[in-house]
Amino acid sequence: MSRPPFAPFTADDVATVSAQLGRPARDVVGIAARCVCGAPTVVATAPRLADGTPFPTLYYMCHPGATAAISALEATQVMNEYTALLADDADLRSRYAAAHASFLADRAVLGEVPEIAGISSGGMPERVKCLHALAAHSLAAGPGVNPIGDLALARADWSPSRCVCIDYTETTPDA
Ligand SMILES: [Zn+2]
Predict the structure, then answer these.
(1) Which InterPro entries match (predicted)?
(2) Per-residue DSSP letters for 128-162?
(3) Range of 139's domain?
(4) Whole-number pLDDT of residue 74
């Protein structure tokens, strides 16, 4: 897990992320989380892309195994369940709001972008819109920061501590 300022990363890391996503990874500023084997699981992207576009999603889940496992969760009623949990649990709401603030503080390290001020990711601070984004935040920040992301990871049939990576180089797109 890693938060800004990120450790240096390599061209191989970016090539792996591109292969994982099936498109060229752009404006990468760090690898925010990795599989136990070292392969990226969460890529960090600049808050303003090179073409000027504001980009709120600092932490993006790029690992196909993780993405599939979270998609499987989203296909169940789990987002409704977490939304109900938030409605019922003031402490959880407070921790989710703190996760939102923590996400924005991380991104601010990389620069202020007025167009996305106060906008984080995944539905924070009040809604549960994308478990991929919330779980990616949890993978980057570590346990105890994003309570909904933590719940999703705990339930997902995937873990960064058990490698299910494929040889991404065999599927590297022309970039
Ligand atoms: Zn792996």
Answers:
(1) DUF501
(2) ---HHHHHHHHHHH-TTS-HHHHHHHHHSS--TTS
(3) 11-159
(4) 96
pLDDT digits (tens, 9 = 90+) for 64-96: 999 999 999 999 999 999 999 999 999 999 999
Q: Kindly state whether residue 105 falls inside one of the protein's structural domains.
A: yes
pLDDT at 173: 52
Low-confidence spans in the chain with pLDDT less than 50? 175
Pair of tokens at residue 60 = 């993006």
Close Cβ partners of 76 (under 8 Å, ≥ 6 residues apart): none
Q: Cα separation of 54 and 57, whole Å? A: 9
Q: Ligand 1 centre from 12 Cα, in Å?
A: 14
Contact between 97 and 3 (Cβ < 8 Å):
no
CA of 121 to the centre of ligand 1 (A): 25
- Give the total number of structural domains in the chain: 1
Kindly give the distance from the C-alpha atom of residue 70 to the centroid of ligand 1, in angstroms, as a whole number. 17
pLDDT digits (tens, 9 = 90+) for 148-165: 999 999 999 999 999 999
Instruction: For residue 105, give every residue at least 6 positions away whose Cβ sits within 8 Å of its Cβ, in sequence order, or none.
Output: none
- What pLDDT is attached to residue 170? 66
Question: If we measure between CA atoms, which residue out of 44, 75, 82, 77 comes closest to residue 60?
Answer: 44
User: From the CA of 114, how far away is ligand 1's center (Å)?
Assistant: 37
